[in-house]
Amino acid sequence: MTGGDELAAILSALDNPHRLRILAALKVGGRNYVSQLAREIGISRPLLHLHLNKLEEAGLVTSQLELSADGKALNYFEVVAFHVELTPETVAAAAATLSDKPEK
């Protein structure tokens, strides 16, 4: 079962067309480094970094810094296998575990 905070983070991360495109590109093309991924998706590296950070915070992608043969640092990202089932029951169960309770 997905907890409320985790579900909220996942849904928030998926609530952006750029992030959906990023996940799709990583799923289809496999792990990739930031500069190449930015070119493939057609967005700037700073904007891509913002979106990748959101996806990583939600646990949907992981990153690994590696050195290329010529000594350049490349940050590789890849999709983490995930499964989210949205039903009224799973949403209600997740809502009951949220750490941020709305004020009354």
From TrEMBL:
Sequence ranges assigned to domain HTH arsR-type in this UniProt record: 1-94
SUPFAM superfamilies: Winged helix' DNA-binding domain
Xref: InterPro entries: ArsR-like_HTH (IPR011991), HTH_ArsR_DNA-bd_dom (IPR001845), WH-like_DNA-bd_sf (IPR036388), WH_DNA-bd_sf (IPR036390)
Record-given protein name: Helix-turn-helix transcriptional regulator
